[in-house]
Amino acid sequence: MVSDFFYPNMGGVESHIFHLSQCLLKLGHKVCVVTHAYGDRCGVRYLSNGLKVYYLPIPVLYQQASLPTIFTSLPLLRYIFIREKITIVHGHSTCSTLCNEAIFHGLTMGLKAIFTDHSLFGFADVPSILTNKMIRFTLCDISHVVCVSHTCKENTVLRSVIPPQLVSVIPNSVDCNLFTPSEVWPKLDPIVIIICGRLVYRKGIDLLAQVIPEVCKQHAKVKFVIGGDGPKRTLLEEVREKYQLHDRVDLVGALNHEDVRNLLIKGHIFLNTSLTEAFCMSILEAASCGLFVVSTDVGGISEVLPEELTKTAKDGTGMPSSTPLSSPDPAAVSEAINFALQQLPKHNPHAAHELIKKCYSWKNVALRTEHVRVHVSSVLQFTILHD
Asked: Could you tell me which residue ranges the Glycosyl transferase family domain spans (predicted)?
């Protein structure tokens, strides 16, 4: 498993790699994780169940993505591939420099490579154009590609121009043993709406800043609790100050992953205002904790939860926002919240948890990923015998 994004950094990619690796270890596979150093965490470390992690001394360029050099990482990656007798290189995330370089070097060494895409990208802006060119180069001889949603698959196929037959859809999952509802459902006075995530533009914080005053104006018994930190925190503080909502909007700041569940069980509704999402694990964690989910209908959001657990807000045209970066309508989000408020009296958090537990498990993700790897390995064996 290769990616720039891994523990102690927190996020969806990091969680995916860790839980998938743990399940593959239990299935009898040998798994190693390769990432760059995080502070003094450098060298070889061992995590739960003996998961071996290589933290390489590679400098970070931007937002935990390592400096692209192509050949500087070759000696380290080659040494790891040979020492650990690697047969398949599995890279994660388009934006991970280390992932792209590891796939490139693995293919030149005759190894098979799998790539998992976790994000959506556009086609017209300069960053997306450059990223799409890079991913076309990386995936030109890839063995197989995994996407976390059908929307993500369509986006990846269009960006990389690879045959759809080489792409499988395997969704993310959630550890329902960690995200459980509270034994006592919080009283509906006040009604608490939880927002939890990075406070950045992509997460729709500008949209949230328009929604909060309108909802507080319509409903006197609604309170917002916002977990997370980022450059857009200042905007939320300005909104709270402008509309005198100090007792209605609580900014709790950055949270450790183990503290997320404690925040979620204090609320009744989880609000996601993202402008782009390939899957969105946060709404899955919230639903597992028993919250009713309100979300913008962007990317692969509509594929994640059943209708009885969520209400999605369409864009201004009344249609789902399927483009990689959309601008949902604040009024539609407010209407979705109004619908959720009406659903709360009959919402059963424990039933919601059981439904999520039935639908999602990391073991199932691991088994489906194992099927992909067996297919790739059989192709490798057939090629060797044929040659």
From this structure: 188-309
Residue 187's pLDDT is 85
Q: Across-strand partners of 310? A: 293
Same domain, 204 and 292: yes
As a whole number of angstroms, the distance between CA 66 and CA 88 comes to 22
Same domain (yes/no): 199, 89: no
Between CA 33 and CA 307 the distance in angstroms is 36
Residue 60 sits in the same domain as residue 200: no
pLDDT at 379 (0 to 100): 61
3-class secondary structure for 18-42? HHHHHHHHHCCCCCEEEEECECCEC
Letter for the amino acid at 196?
Answer: C
Q: Residue 34: what pLDDT?
A: 97
Which residue intervals of the chain are DSSP H helices? 12-26, 74-83, 97-108, 126-138, 150-160, 205-218, 233-242, 257-264, 281-288, 330-343, 349-359, 362-386
Helices and strands counted in the chain (H then E): 12, 15
- Taking residue 207's Cβ as centre, other Cβ atoms within 10 Å add up to 20
The pLDDT of residue 327: 66
Check which CATH number belongs to the domain holding 286 and give it.
3.40.50.2000
Bridge partner list, 91 = 2, 115
Under-50 pLDDT residues of the chain: 317-323, 380-387
Q: How far apart are CA 345 and CA 343, in angstroms?
A: 6
Domain range for 258 is 191-359
Decide if 104 is inside a domain: yes
d(CA 317, CA 225): 30
Residues 201 and 160 in one domain: no
281: left (phi over 0), alpha (psi -120 to 50) or beta: alpha
Q: What pLDDT sits at residue 248?
A: 95
* Distance separating alpha carbons of residues 357 and 363, to the nearest angstrom: 12
Would residue 226 count as lying in a domain? Answer: yes
